[in-house]
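Onboarding guide, step 5: your first structure request.
Type a short instruction followed by the sequence, for example:

Predict the 3D structure of this protein.
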Amino acid sequence: MSDQGGRADMPRAYDPAAHETGVYRMWSERGLFAPAGDPGRPPFVIVMPPPNVTGALHMGHALTVALEDLMTRWHRMLGDPTLYLPGADHAGIATQVVVERELALEGLDRHELGREEFLRRVWEWVDRYGSRIDEQLKRMGVSCDWDRRSFTLDPGPSAAVRRTFLDLHRRGLIYRGERIINWCPRCATALSELEVRYAEEDAALYHVRYDLADGSGHLVVATTRPETMLGDTAVAVNPEDERYSAMVGREAVLPILGRRIPVIADRSVQTDFGTGALKVTPGHDPTDFEIGERHGLAVIGIMNPDGSLNERAGPFAGLDRSEARGRVVERLREDGALVEVEPYRHSVGHCDRSGDVVEPLVSRQWFVRMGPLAEPAMEAVRSGAIRVVPERFERVYFNWMENIRDWCVSRQLWWGHRIPAWHCAECPEVTVAEDEPAGCGSCGSGRIEQDPDVLDTWFSSGLWTHSTLGWPGRTADMERYYPGTVMETGYDILFFWVARMIMLGMFNNGGRAPFSTVYLHGLVLDPHGVKMSKTKGNVSDPLDLVDAYGADALRFALTTGNAPGSDMRLDERRLEWARNFANKVWNSARFVMMNMDDGPGPGADWGRMPEPACRQDRWILSRLARAAGRVGEHLSGYQFGEAQRELHDFVRGEYCDWYIEMAKVRIRAGDRSAVPVLAYVLERTLRLLHPFMPFVTEALWQRLCGSPDGRSLMTERYPTAADGRLDGRAEEEMGAVMELVRAVRNLRAEFRIQPSTRVPASAVSESMGEALSGEAGAIAALGLIEPLTIGAQGPDGSDRATLVLAHSTVSVPLAGLVDVRAETVRLSAELASLGASAERLRVRLGDARFAERAPPEVVQRERERLAGLVERGDRVRGILERLGT
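The system replies with structure tokens like these:
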């Protein structure tokens, strides 16, 4: 492989583009993505949420696969048989919309083509473009078993869909009936909850007078949709509302149409909304539909599927719904029935695909009865059979499940799983079967026709945990890999997908939950904390970021500091920080390999711990063991951001910034005993980092000790604390050494002493004197000290800076190094400026109007500025004290 070899051909900077393609090809060609490991251990199974076949990689996908691949690679290195199963969703509405758009460019529509020809065209499109997101995912480095890739319309998942539908129907959990559904007039289909996006919009609240039929008075109702009043069949009030108690049981006259409708009492009416009187339109509102069912009200639908009004809308028939609203308001005003119009802001549902306002319509559809499925799914979480991470989302899960409504699963589309139900022309019965029946199951007539609708996409993806493994067959994969281990996805689809997977997985598999852990990540926001969206123009293309920074940097930036269920901001600084860290790892490895006596290369074994030659070696080996232990604890607890922070701090803050720098001092002095330790810690560090930054670590490991027989870092054992050697005494002693060096470095910076100028220093310590003396060479070299005196303390005075540390006291004479008077003047002026700036910020933050009107992020930014000014002021006071002023 091109990445094998020593440091002779290693450039000074890591170039992701030069390595990522070759590294991924090596993994793939060596078959390393398939489950392996100890067959006696329970498998680790994670199923990728199937991206839409129409989709392109976006930041949500990037975060999802970064977290899933992190878990996968870690468990693979632990020796667990690991299956990361990929796939794609047929995306009913999205795919049909894309293909219909292409047909429109040819002047065609699907009805002209016919169902069979249209589906042929869709399959042609899928064959041409359907795998592009797979190639994009590979660029992110995902190590899933591509040989097991599934598609929701493959024969196996299709058979699972038919069997599930049949079994639910046999148990009375699927029925066909008329209910309120979400309808998109442009897509001409029912929608699931997930396909409806809600947005706040400015609108108006119209107050309309409904006269009582007996002439004794009137009610005023408030509505945002006056056009739907044409379908009103009642006016409802709360039975506890004394304002209207005398009117309950009477009749009101519907404005414009003059229809008499009853005044009814229902506890669902909110007394504090509008006037407390509610127009009831069962055909166009979910709440009204339920009120209508309770009171036996008629359902009057006034809208056609295309969003225009039908003949039941009287004089407004044929008008589009938006135009009809204006005309109805105009007529109400003419008739004197419009009492008031007030501005109103509310949440409006829009179709996720077309952007059209969603219309609640009563329609004859197929529904799944959810109550009996929800109860065992709730018990699985209550009992701990399924753990939700973070735990706070359990409350959200229960709230939704306890108030669950029946699920409309039919879609008026052609692309998807066609409903396995056949309607008889001779009798009203419907025959449900896995395979096409020869005749009607009731009367035997051969004049049967399959239902034209297809199932909601979420029905097939709800079976994803087992349909991908061969269910309903008893396959080897089903026996081995069901139930899975972790379901990782965004918290925003906890209800729409995760809950349905739990319900359908338990229904189909004898009550066995489909996975033991649900891990929910947050949203990726733009640098200003705003959700990314194409309409806002703040979307970042992950592939552009991979080109600019490398896949490792993008993965590391997305997951470092990322807590479960919390949104995170992604900005250029975060990406640059991650890229710089990858480059730091590369350069540290380059230094180590440059100094290895035997040289790195294929087959080299640098994973065996060497005997430490001195305190520095014992310290870094102990710190490595502690880091491995803490990283393992964080990974086990799903605290991936904390694991990465721990690793970053060890690699950069201890291995690179301290041990390598101390090793340089030893090597320059002719002592090469540090080299084996350098190589060992490097090799272990690459293992620890691999799940987080797979490309750069594999490229370096292949140079260090890869071999042509198929060894890969991806299958090496992950380090644990038990592998290492803890040495608390060495850690304490080296802590004193580093503390002293930092103190001198800080002093140099505070007094702006040039790096080329060596400073004299003396240090004394009762507890660490021996350690400081033993490390005097490293202290002098790293602190740029000359001469360094250990064991004696210089006299106090205004010409000396004395620092009392936790383990020692160090003093540095300032004479000849610092102009005390000039520094005093400069620092005093800075302190005064800091104080004035801080006071201005305190006044601003104390202004109630600023706190109320300014955006929260601006207020927070000003608070952080104030904290920074106060902190700097404290530091300047400390410096002035050391100057004796």
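Each response can be followed by summary notes, for example: The chain has a mean pLDDT of 90.
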